[in-house]
Amino acid sequence: MTQSLASVVLSPPQISKAPAWHDTTWLAGVLTRVNKQIRSMCAGCEALEEEIAYATLGPGKRIRAGLLLSWHAIAFGDTNSDETAERAAAAIELIHEASLIHDDVCDNSVYRRGRSSVAARFGIPRATLAGAVLSGRGIAELAAICEREGIELDLETLRCLVKGQIFESLAGRTPYFEGAHPYFGIICSKTGSLFRLACALGANLGARYSEPFDLAAPLAFADSLAIAYQVLDDVLDIEADPLLKPGRGDIAGGVPTWPILEWIASTPTPQIAWERLRQTHKSFLDIQQLHSEIAASGSIQKARSLIQAELETAETFISAFQPGEAVDGLRKLLAFLASR
Fold first, then answer.
1. From residue 138, how far is each of 80, 144, 167 by CA, in Å?
2. Which end of the chain is more exposed for a tag (fewer CB within 10 A), N or C?
3. Is 2 a member of any domain?
């Protein structure tokens, strides 16, 4: 029996807090200030105060903020960030948090980061409103910063974020397995868009008082990181402890992630496997059977090989820069992902 937002009462197990990827880097103190900026930007919306606080004060990794600040430091030549960069980092995190809220609404997800999703805790209407407030405030802040600093805000990136969510939500609805699936296009749109925005805007802000910074390296770094990050997220969903993620979300929801697509392609009858994935109202035994077949197919090992290759590629794009705290921080992020 599957769970729905309307019927489930959520009390997931508490997860012990593991050290964050940035705890031993120069970013630890800076991201504390970014969190304060996030709280400041969220002030003044009393009607949704509880929902917004719940979404923004959760155990997020702050990877997008870290990317912006790191590339700001690389372009600037110093890890002493300024308030403008920190506010831009906070704004990107607001947009990211909004995207997570709407992702959970689209996927009917009841868990996020080991606890109830915003939609499950407060209901879909209030969650949707909270997401709209966060995205609106984040975009408004970025627009104000870019106008003040004479930097063009890449709104196409934000359009791609929305397009990626739409494509992902519709990806499993086609009745036929077509083999060539727009999976990597979804990654580039949904995950890669904010990674690219964070890296490029950070570099542009860092170089705003000097020569223009070549964006080829930060954008290429963002693209490889996005693939590794999203495929890893797909793998962790399949490998997750069922006590912490009941139903193995992507399998239960029929979401065609990279390891699942690899399994489908490897079966003697991919169309039948596709139809089994798309089946609604899967029983617990159906989900466990699918999980066992996916695990036995070798698709998870292939996915992890892809993750490692993309992380190594990402590392090549920062190796050309002078060693220092900013580059070391990005290397620790790559090592953190490789270790998961």
1. 23, 10, 23
2. N
3. no
